[in-house]
Amino acid sequence: MQSLNLGWCENISDDGVMSLAYGCPDLRTLDLCGCVLITDESVVALANKCVHLRSLGLYYCRNITDRAMYSLAQSGVKNKHEMWRSVKKGKFDEEGLRSLNISQCTYLTPSAVQAVCDTFPALHTCSGRHSLVMSGCLNLTSVHCACILQAHRTHTAYPHPAH
């Protein structure tokens, strides 16, 4: 199985998600939005066992904390060597998360979410390319993707001639 939508299945627990992670290592897309019982344990299991995960929906999973985000970031770093092996074999498929919805996950801090964003360059917060969705997380306004950081560096490296 590569794709599963469990969104708003309110009885889904960590036990169920951990079983899914262990039993479906090729999972690429998982929607857990509104699964209010899941915690960091679910995300840690997904990060460790589902190395091909590209899209993860955690909207309104209010028990998710920084531990889950750091686990995702760490899994991305660990799996980079697999990506290079694929490149060498001519089978390059951009590895890592391309879409993450953490809207209403209010326990998350900017440093943890920025670690995920830095690890997975396909996650975007910039206008028109929102693949890292953080609606309702008012404390995460300082999290930015590489595009915004690059634009800021370019702008500060070449100041306007009027200055």
TrEMBL record:
This is F-box/LRR-repeat protein 15-like leucin rich repeat domain-containing protein. It comes from the Eukaryota. Residues 2-77 form the F-box/LRR-repeat protein 15-like leucin rich repeat domain.
